[in-house]
Amino acid sequence: MALQRHHKVIIGGVSFLLIAFMIASTLFMYTIFTKQAADVNDLNKKITNLQTDTQTKLNDLSTSVLETKSGLSSLGSQIGSLDSELVKLKASASSDFSGIIGSAIKSVVTIKTDLGQGSGFVIADGGYVVTNEHVMDGATAAVIITYDGQQHRVSKVGSDTLMDIALLKMDSTSYSPLKLGNSDNVQIGAKVIAIGNPLGLQFSVSEGIVSAINRPGENNLNAYIQTDASLNPGNSGGPLIDINGEAIGINNFKISNSESIGFALESNYIKSTINEISQQAEGKNLI
Fold this sequence. Notes:
Layout: H1 5-93, H2 98-104, E1 108-113, E2 117-124, E3 128-131, H3 133-136, E4 142-146, E5 151-160, E6 165-170, E7 191-196, E8 204-216, E9 222-227, E10 239-241, E11 247-254, E12 262-266, H4 267-282
Antiparallel strand pairs: 1-2, 1-4, 2-3, 3-6, 4-5, 5-6, 7-8, 7-10, 8-9, 9-12, 10-11, 11-12
């Protein structure tokens, strides 16, 4: 049966509406998907930007922390340097050598032999100790006593009788050496201290000034610092220390029947003599 005209119109209208609906639905879905994709891309961009911004801030924070730590380290170093300068200032402006003595005395030793006793000080890492040769002369047994009361076995590396220097080595390497100053820079009138064991009084300290430099000794060498710091038997081999806490000499002898006229071998001669002894005995320089 043939469709009537109005039937065709109805079917055509329904088909058109169906197609239009499908097209509209497709466009609507496309629009939704497109917007969602755009939103996702926008969100990803925001996440990326946020990550970048966060990383940048973290980097800035890390840099700031490092700069702060560096600043604190520098400040700590400056404070330590300031403390050191204050100790030197106290020593130069008054009689207060306490800060310097407290550090230096840890490197000073008492040397007891079967013939007597004297002083010395740690001259290099490895337990090396310097003293006067006459402290060890003729001795067949010796022991070193450090500031903490510990006794240590000791052996003789070598000596120089002309310079009256002996290089020893104790059986402990845990004591720090006393730094040698440059005796060429020593000035007359500079304050000094002598640390030693006068008359058996261990680790005694006496204060004085440099009375003269380049004085001749019993070896006829102009190699001695004259000081009015009190020196007595037992001080031999101990250090003469300046306000920097450095050994500028090794206390050697005093003029008999005199007061406050003592002599110390200059530190530059100590250094060269010790290295000569070490080269001959062990084939190396110590300082």
